Amino acid sequence: MSKKAAHPTIVIVRKVHSDHDEEHGGAWKVAYADFVTAMMALFIVLWLLSASEKVQKAVGGYFQDPTGNGRQTGSTNAGVGETLTLNKDDMDRLKEKLEQAMKQIPAFEHLENQIKMTITAEGLRIDLLETKSGLFFATGNPKPTDAGAELLAVLAGELVKLPNKIAIEGHTDATPYGRADYSNWELSSDRANAARRILNQSGVQDSRISQVRGFADQRLLLKDEPNNPSNRRISIIVRNEGLDKQEELYAQAKQVTAAAPPSPQPAASKDKPTPLPPAQKK
User: Fold this and answer.
1) What pLDDT was estimated at residue 21?
2) What is the separation of C-alpha 70 from the centre of its chain, rounded to a whole number of angstroms?
């Protein structure tokens, strides 16, 4: 035997084992969610195509301004689905006409400082501010005085010529009314309704009255003086044309959105995916 054969060659074989037992990702869930979203969008489009024009405008107005804060009004919110017809110049001219009409009242010189007219986003706001003795309404009384009734009748003579909707507000100061069964809430609402009746009797159709609001002492004109008589007031708001329609469309859009079914969510599987078989060993 040769010397070389006495020492055989040693061959080391290393076997590499592939580990495929790790959990695989959920990429399929993302693809499935995209598919479900696309199908939901398709069904919404099909539903809108078959819906009435009124519903289509309501949904369109909502997506243009989902929060409804695009145009703030005196006490409410309105979307911006359409452009308001009356602009600031129109309201300025209306303000001048009302001032000229009120100057025809014999006692206007005693009322002038208690009438405040301002142009807001909601329209032209006319505030009839009270005095300590009670100029338009006697203290604690929901019935207008003769001066208050005359002024409201004069205002109605000009408002009847307009197509605009009208809102009426009643406000009180922070002094409690003094009765358990009748508070500032009832008093402010009753005064606003009394003003509404005078407008109706003076020719303003009831269909023109958009809102009657009673705010008690929650909208103080002079916040630093909550008991000041000027906080007691009646407000007549000549609303911008089209504002009520916008509010109606906005409310309808919110109802449609609330009634829409929630988008389906893919159920998470609790089972682990089946691991791939190990690679063949060589």
Assistant:
1) 52
2) 9
Report the mean per-residue pLDDT for the chain: 78
48 in a structural domain: yes
Mean pLDDT value of segment 134-160: 89
Residue 62: which of 53, 70, 52, 50 has the closest Cα? 70
What CA–CA distances, in Å, run from 122 to 16, 99, 127?
A: 79, 19, 14
* Percentage of residues in the chain having pLDDT higher than 70: 74
Domain identity same for 232 and 106: yes
In a domain, 7, yes or no: no
What does the pLDDT read at residue 198? 95
Tens of pLDDT, residues 230-251: 999 999 999 887 777 777 787 7
The whole-number pLDDT of residue 51 equals 79
The answer to whether position 2 is within a domain reads no
User: Both 94 and 211 in a single domain?
Assistant: yes
The β-bridge relationship of strands 115-119 and 123-129 is antiparallel
User: 186 lies in a domain?
Assistant: yes
Residues 6 or more apart from 214 whose CB is under 8 A from it?
169, 170, 185, 186, 187, 188, 189, 190, 191, 192
Report the DSSP beta bridge partners of residue 115: 128
Q: What is the CATH number of the domain that holds 96?
A: 3.30.1330.60
Q: How many domains does the chain fold into? A: 2
Residues of the domain holding 33: 27-72+248-259
d(CA 248, CA 245): 5
